[in-house]
Every structure is written in structure tokens, then in C-alpha cells.
Amino acid sequence: MKILQFLLFLIAYAWWAFACAWSLNKLQTAAPAGKSFWNGQLVNLEGLIGFFGFIYLLSGFWNWRLVLLIFLASQLGVLALGVLSLVMDVSYETANIRTLWAGKEFDLKNPILSPALVILSGAMAWALPVAAGIVFFHHAWDSSALQIPIVKCMLLLLMLPGYIMQLTVVAAMLASENLDDDVRQRIFINQGLGMIPMAIYVALAFWAFGIGKPLDISFLGVPGGTLSLETLLPLLALFAVTLLIPFLVGTLRTRKRNLQLLKQIRGYFGDLQDILSSPTPSIYLDEIGKLRSGVEAVREQFAQSDPLLIFDKEAMQTPEKFTDKDKQIAAGIEETRDLDARFKFLDNLRNFEAELDKVVAEFQKRPPETLEEAARHWSDKFKNRCDELSKTIDGSASSKPFLLAGAGTLVSALVLDLVSEVAKTAWDWIAHVPK
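RE: above sequence
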């Protein structure tokens, strides 16, 4: 009988793995088309069903309240992002597209770490049936002697690898200097609220490993013995290391990066003004030509120094060499390129080169005695452009990033409060299960 029961688990596990792979692929292909919401919900539901379903099949452990609590907690992020869509400039689907190719950038910039995480997750997935089988055949079904080891197996081999991959990639995204502020806030809030269902898994882990020590906090209005300090401290540390600190660092890095690129563009306009203000018209064409060559060289070097920019260029030039998934990511990059300072910088350089070409074309048509007058006209025009850039730079150098950092801290406090409440509830429900 136990052999048939374990065979049923293996069949269910294989089908679940296939369904998860299909759903993840569907999610990644649907995001560039702006249709990722329901696919994301399906992925979350499959994870929840698989985790508790396999525990029940192998050990008989089931708690409806626990399952429902995790499901409702996982929807808080969806609800928060829906509200944010009403007040933010970047829509939900646009942010998803940007997040998708931020994940691709992580793969490109981490050619060793990214495959290593995939290999780790795959190895754990293969080890799970083996470890679960060893435990399953050594204990009676629906006994605490079986339930606790099975819960440990599922937590360590099924849930932990996924969280390691997710938090590693998310931390890298949040700390990136190229991410738009609105998209960064969305990722931060979504993942921050994702700590709430994680609190339940942590409470379950501490129950299974027997290391939680309930505290008497009845003076706060919470029933005594429902909160484990050891449950909350890892969550607080994890939240700070993988979300809050990368969010604050990324916000400030983005500000510095944007200012640097804008000042570089303004510097080129200043160089052009210096050329046009020269009282020697005979040097105009030569000096403008040198300036254009220098700008073009900077643009080419910039484009060739970034893995994502190289990927985008090659995917556009030789699409036949790329998979359908990469083609869709490249299409998503083109659709949301305005959310990345690197593409704005390249576009600004191309526009500046086009302006130089217009100046050269006009000067070549004019008689020498009118060049100085034309130079004054173009100089005034570029001075206005320079002033506009200065205003943009002043705006970027304002306190907005620090306001974002403050908002991040406020959200952190709210999330951690929710985490503590969920952890208390989960611990109360789990701790009453006899070992």
C-alpha cells in the first residue's frame, strides 16, 4: 500500500513539475505582451498546492487555516500593486516588462552565479523524491514521526532553493543603477509584502526543527505564547539585507548615474557653444567634425561595454540567432527603453550627432562671410538646450531620492508589523500541532 501511495506522489510530483515549468514559461512569454497577471497568479497557486499537497500525500499533515492564510497573504502584494497603478506613472504591465528584462540582465552580468542557482535548484528538485522516500518508508503515515521530517524535506528542498534564487535576483535588481524609480518601488513593495507569506513558512520551519521559543507578550494585547522571537529575527535580517538596503543603495546609485549621464550630455553642448562662439569661422567645420567623432566614439564604447546593450543590439540585428523567448525580451526592451537611463543616454547622443550634422550641412551651404552670424544663431539655440538640461539636472539632484528612501523605510515598518502579526498567527496555529 505504501508503495502505491509513494508512486502516486511521484506521479503527482512529475505532473506538478511539468505544470510549473509550463506556467513559468507562459509567464515569461506573456510579460512582454502585457498579459502576465493571471499567469503570475497561476504560478503562485501551483507553488502553494504543490507544497501542502505533497506534505499531505506523504505524511497526512494538513491545516486548512494555514493554507488559506498563506494564500490571502500572497494577495496583499497584488492588491498593493493594483493601488499603486492608480498613482504611479508606470503601469502594472509595463513594470512587469521592465522587470523581465532586468532579470535577463542579471543572467547576462552573472554568467557563473545565474547557472549555479539554476543547477542548485535542479539538484534540490531531484533530491526531494529520494529524501522524501527514505523518510516515508521508515515511519507510519499520519504520524508525527513522519510529518515533521516530511515538512523539513519540503522546506529545505522545495521552498528554500526558490527563495534563494528569487531574493538573489531581486536584491540585484533593487541595487541596480539602471532601474527606474517607479519600477524599483513596485518591486520593493511587492517583495516586501511577499515577506508576509514567507513568515508563515519560517514559523513552520521553526516548529518543524523545534527551535522556536514562544514569548509572553500578553501586555501587547496578543495571547501569550504566540510570538517567537527566533521566527521574527531572521525575517527582519532577511528583509534588511535583501530588500531594504538594496532599495536604498539602488535609489542613490540611480540618482548619481542619471546625473553623471545628463552632465556628460550638457558638457557636449557646452563644447559646441565654445566652438560656435569662436571669432574664427574657418575652424567651425573642423572642430565640429572632431566633436562629432568624439561623441560617436563615446557612444560606440558605451554600447559595447554593457552586456544588455550588446544583447539588445544583436537581437535587433540578427534575430534569427536568438530564441523566441529572447526575441520577446528584446521586444520588451524596445517597448520600455525609456525606463532605462542607458537607452536615454544613447538616444541623447544620437540626437546630438544629428544636430551636429544639421549645423555642418547648413555651414557648408553658406558663404564664408555669413558663417559667424549663423554660428550665433545656432549658439543661442544650443544655449537654450543647455539651460533645459541644467533644469533637468537640478530637478534630478533634488531630494526625491531621499524621499523615496524615507518612503521605503515607512513601508518597511508597515510590512514588518504585518509580518509580525502573521507570524504570531501562524505560530499559534502550528505550535498546537502535536509533535
